[in-house]
Design brief:
By secondary structure, the protein is mostly helical. The protein is about 55% helix and about 5% strand.
Amino acid sequence: MTIEAIHHGPEDRRRAAPRASAGRFAAKWSNARAALIGYLHGKGWNGEEIARHLGDGTSSATIRAAVQRRYHLPPQPSRASVNVPMKLLRKTHLMAEAERRGLDPEELASRILNMTIEGDLIGAVLDE
């Protein structure tokens, strides 16, 4: 008897068969992974941030496609962006602090601003 002659039923074949995805074969994601992606998307993370967080080589384009086509999630809430002019020395200090904490400089600046505002510390920071 050959291996081809053994029949396990359609459920086993469907589970074992690879799925074509954008010209290459990819395994299905687990429910836990899909839930994590949905959660992070809902928190406002973009595809690049989610891909970096997963750290398994999944591209941001794959994340965006999954969010839009496979999971049919609503568009990501827009996040306001603010340009903050900074002298080079301060920017260098911010970048060093961000690296020490394992963050992007933008993320560290965002955290500092948010904590200052949420903690009602603007007066303390500005000596008012």
